[in-house]
Amino acid sequence: MFMTEIFSAFLLTLLVITAVAAVKTRNLFVSVMLTGIYSLLIAINFFLLDAADVALTEAAVGAGVATVFFLSALALTAEEERSPSAYRAVGIGIFIAVTLVLGYATLGMPSYGDPEAPVHVHVAPWYLEKTPEFIDIPNIVTAVLGSYRGYDTLGEVLVVFTAGIGVLFLLGAHPRRKSEPQGGIASGENGLRHYLIPRVLGRLFIPFVLLFGLYVQFHGEYSPGGGFQAGAIIAASVILYALLEGEDRALQVIPPGVLKGLMAGGALLYGAVGIAGMLLGGNFLDYSVLTSDPVKGQQMGLLLIEAGVGITVTGVLLTIFHAFAARERF
Amino acid sequence: MEFLGLYHYLVFPLLLMSGIYAVIAKRNLFKKLIGLALMQSAVFLLYITMAKVEGGTGPILKPGDADVLYSNPLPEVLILTAIVVGISTAALGLGIIVRIKEEFGSVEEDVVRELGGR
Predict the structure, then answer these.
(1) Is A231 helix (H, G, I), strand (E, B) or coil?
(2) Of B54, B75, B88, which has the smallest distance from its Cβ to A114's Cβ?
(3) What is the DSSP letter of A146?
(4) In DSSP terms, which residues pair with A139 in a beta bridge?
């Protein structure tokens, strides 16, 4: 226990150093790489704080997909920060003042890990106690995400969907096709095809990454995982394929029309499960009425909405990636 | 032990403020977006820190073991979905930055402002 504490204090210190370095460096490529490392460090920290689901999400999304997005946008803009910093004194002043105030405020927080802290005595014990009775799955995080807070998750899926639509509006309308093999991140028709080692190793990895994504998707009720993580992992495997074989090949595997269908289809599936509950005499997103046995109905509803989440997240992340990759650098 | 607990909380303002510093003092729009992402993960860390119960384990039930202490699942759910929403909105921001670069030829705030006539 004590060793874990020392390790996590070490990780937190590294986290602060990485964050400061990412802000300070003027080379934006270095900055993006540092934020990738930052995400990986914070994912390990989440794991040490008992949040395995969150750690998996952060590792897949923050360290994986986010880094690719930032790099692909960077490939379209400039790599160096040109202007000198402005308002430095104001920035540093605010930094010190707010850190001191918040630092003082932490003295009033409930002590770390206190089981009697207000956050632990409200609805959380109810979730832990009643889930075996109502839904009967071991992973409480999935139960809360899909069933107790199903409305919330539906809203989040719609936000993800809307963001995908927004990126399409901004970048997808007049995709400037490339004529020369310089430009975006998966540029040219070749990608990394002429590099033998990444190609051979990457091709070996892709099927296993896909398989792991499916495992995370369908085993989410029993172990850390679920639609959000699985969507990011599956999208990452297709992005890896696009980076290795060129963007055009990846678009042959999953055409843009299919991607748009995935984006909307997942959200629609989620909503349809909610409506099906209403038609069968329950409330919106009440899965108990889906089958004659309420517990089985809950499990079926969870499986379906997690599939919807996974489909939408995969579709949106891939659409965003292709929107960036298809653009030509100015 | 007490100090380590405090340290967990103290890291939060430091991370948050590194992000805010980038938003205030850096003129590069790309860097501002990285600052926003840093601020966001600082908040995530605070939530997950509060979900931890001393001596607890992850909220995945172990059948037939009655007296296991579990950490709080609720903040974990909130943050899990927030991470994926965070990357989607960051991508939207990146899209806007790419369009600004295409229109103005720069992603530096002062250059863009000059060309924008304000």
Answers:
(1) helix
(2) B54
(3) I
(4) B60
How far apart are the C-alpha atoms of A105 and A226, rounded to whole Å?
Answer: 36
Beta carbons of A198 and A192 less than 8 angstroms apart: yes
Task: Return phi, psi of residue A257, to 5°.
Answer: -60, -40
Looking at chain B, which residue has its C-alpha nearest residue A111? Answer: B5
Other beta carbons less than 10 A from residue A9's beta carbon? 15
Residue where the block lists tokens 């369009």: B99
Amino acid at B92: L
Q: Could you count the other beta carbons within 10 Å of the beta carbon of residue A232?
A: 28
DSSP secondary structure letters along A46-76: HHHTT-HHHHHHIIIIIIIIHHHHHHHHHHH
CATH dotted code for B2-60+68-109: 1.10.287.3510
Chain A residues near residue B13 by CB distance under 8 angstroms: 98-99, 102-103, 106
Q: How far apart are CA A193 and CA A200, in angstroms?
A: 10
In DSSP terms, which residues pair with B28 in a beta bridge?
Answer: B108
Residue-wise pLDDT for B52-103, tens only, equals 888 888 888 887 776 788 899 999 999 999 999 999 999 999 999 999 998 8
Would you give the DSSP letter of residue A110? P
pLDDT beneath 70: ranges in chain A: 1, 173-191, 329-330
DSSP, collapsed to helix, strand or coil, labels residue A80 as strand
B80 contact residues in A (CB cutoff 8 A): 53-54, 57, 141, 145, 226, 228
